[in-house]
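User: For documentation purposes, I need each entry recorded in a consistent format: the amino acid sequence on its own, followed directly by the corresponding C-alpha cells. There are two entries in this batch. Please keep commentary to a minimum and don't merge the entries.

Assistant: Recorded as requested. Entry 1:
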Amino acid sequence: MNEILKKIGRIGIVPVVVLDTPADAVPLAKALCEGGLPCAEVTFRTAAAEEAIRSITETFPDMLTGAGTVLTTEQVDRAAAAGAKFIVSPGLNPKIARYCVEKGIPVVPGCATPSEVEQAIEYGLDVVKFFPAEQAGGLAYIKAISAPYTGMRFLPTGGISAANAGSYLAFDRVLACGGSWMVKNDLIKAGDFDKITALTREAAAIVREKRG
C-alpha cells in the first residue's frame, strides 16, 4: 500500500472539507491539527479548493491534505500543483484512475459494486472509497462485498457520524472513515474554529478507542 494511504489509515478519519473562501483554509487546518486529525480532503465543489489546498500545504506541510470530488484530469493537475498528496473521486472514472496511477498520485475512487471494485483492482489499487456509505448499505454491505477481495481496503464516506464511525473503524477492512460532521459548513462560515477543534478531538478519541 502507498505510504500516504498507510498514514491515512493511522489517522483513521479523513475530514471532508468544503470551503467557500480560501481565507478559512489555514484556521481550519490549524483546528484539525490541534484536534488530532492532521488530514483533510478539500473538495473541488467550490472555486476556492485549489487556493485552499495551496494555503494549507504551504502552512502545514506535514498535514495530509488531499483533493476530493475530483472529476477531471485537469482538476488532478491543479490539485497536485497546489500540493495535494492524494486524490479522491465520488465514482470510478477510468480516465482519472489511469491518469493518477501513471503519474504516481495516490487515488481513491468511489466504488459501490463488485464490478467497480474489480476495476480498481485492475488499475493496481488497494484502497477504494465506499460511497455513499450509509445509503448504499453501510457496514453490513462492506463486510459482504469485501469478502472476495481480500487485498482491498475501504474508505466509507457518506452518512458517517460520531454515532457510527466507531463501528466502521472496528472492522479491519476499513482503512479509515471520511466524514464532515466535525467540519460542518455553518461552523466554518461562522468562524467557530474552537468548536471544530473540540469536535475533531472527539472524533480522534473514537479512533483511539477502536484502534488504540
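Entry 2:
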Amino acid sequence: MKKLRPSGGYRKTASFQTATLIYDATYWFCEKFIDSRSRTLDQMIQAARSGRQNIAEGSRAAATSSQTELRLINVARASLEELLLDFEDYLRHRRLPMWTVSSMEAQAVREVPKRFKRDQSDRTDLTDLSDQERWKLYAPWLENERPEVRANAIICLIHQANYLLDQQIAALEAAFVEEGGYSEQLATARLVERARKREELHWESESGDSIPSCPQCDKPMVLRMAKAGINEGKQFWGCSGFPECKGVVKI
C-alpha cells in the first residue's frame, strides 16, 4: 500500500548535507582549537550534532505528523543559531577578524556551489556528491591552519543552512495550512474510500449483478472510471490488486 505522506529522503537535501559539513567541521575545529576540558567544546559539538540529527528525525516523522516534523526542523534551526553565536564568540573573545557578508573571503565560500555547477558539466549540483567529495570542495577553508579562517567559513555555512531551513519551514507551514496534518489527511482518505465502497454497493443493487472476480488473478474487482482515452468517463471493473495486476472487465 502506498504511503499517505512521503517521508525520509533527507540525505539528498541541501539542508542536511550542509548540516553534515557543519557538524564535521565543528568536531575537528573543537578537537584542534578548543581546550578539551572546556564545557564549550561539548556544547558546540552537541549543537552541531543537533542541527544535523533533527533534520533527519523531522524527515522521518513527516510520514505521521506534520507538527512533529515542523517542531524538529525548528529545533535544528535553533541549534545552528546557537552554534553560530559560539563561533562568533570565539572570534570576538580572541580579537580575531570576522568576515563581513560582502568580504571576498565570505563570497568565495558562498560561491562554491556555483563554481562547481559551472565547472562540472556531468553533474547538476552539490547534492549529487558524497560527503567526502563535498568536503574536499571546502577543504581549503575547513582544514586551514588558522582558526579564524575555519571559524569564519563555518559561519558562512551556518548562514547557508539557516536560510535553507527557513525556506523549508515556510514550505511546511504553507502545506499544513493548505492540506492539513496527517490525521486530517487520514480521515479524508478514509471518507474517500467509504464513498467508493458505497458507490460499488449502489451499482450492485441497481444492476442486480455481483462484484466480479478478476479474470487474471481471481481477486475481487473494483468499480473505476476511465480518466482518458476513447472510454473517458465510462465505468469499468478493475482488479483490486492493481498495479500488480492489471485485469479489467468491461461493464
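Summary note for entry 2:
Confidence is low (pLDDT under 50) at residues 1-7.
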